[in-house]
Amino acid sequence: MSTALLPALSLVGLVISSHFTAIAYRWIRADEKWLPSFCHLGEKTCASIVFTPRARVFGLPNSVLGQVFYAGLIVGTLTGILDIPLVFGLCLAASIVTVGLGVFLSYSLLFITRVPCKLCFTSHGINLVIFGLLLMR
């Protein structure tokens, strides 16, 4: 079951990260009409998330790092590379970092930025489930 769930959750995470990356690099606006309604945060609200220093914890936009993480999990799971102990260890370490960062960013969203970003909380939840799936492997 986790074999199918891990790449599926990673794909959803990749889509969410790609959405925020496109906003961070101003390829799209946060309130584009063609985006699904649950993605609409409004330009000001989304900017208060995407353009804060907390959105670039390691220099690059967090969403770009998310894209690399999720794509790596998808490729690793589908090709079997994730079964190599070193690769698995790296993915598990990255997952621990994403969960820790998610706690910090969730706190920031709730108490500093004060923006109830559904997509942000969804990606943090996905990261927690991915961590659990990796632990069960």
Structure commentary:
By secondary structure, this protein is mainly α. The chain has a single domain, classed as de novo design (two linked rop proteins), CATH 1.20.1440. Helix content is 71%, strand content 0%. It is built from five helices and no strands. The longest helix is centred in the C-terminal third of the chain and has 29 residues, at 85-113. The radius of gyration is 15 Å and the shape is globular.
Q: Which descriptors would you attach to this protein?
A:
71% helix, 137 residues, mainly alpha, de novo design (two linked rop proteins), globular
**Helix-strand pattern:** HHHHH
CATH superfamily, please? VKOR domain
Shape: globular
Low-confidence stretches: none
CATH level-3 fold name = de novo design (two linked rop proteins)
Quick summary:
The protein is 71% helix and 0% strand. It is mostly helical and 137 residues long. The model has no long low-confidence stretch (mean pLDDT 87).
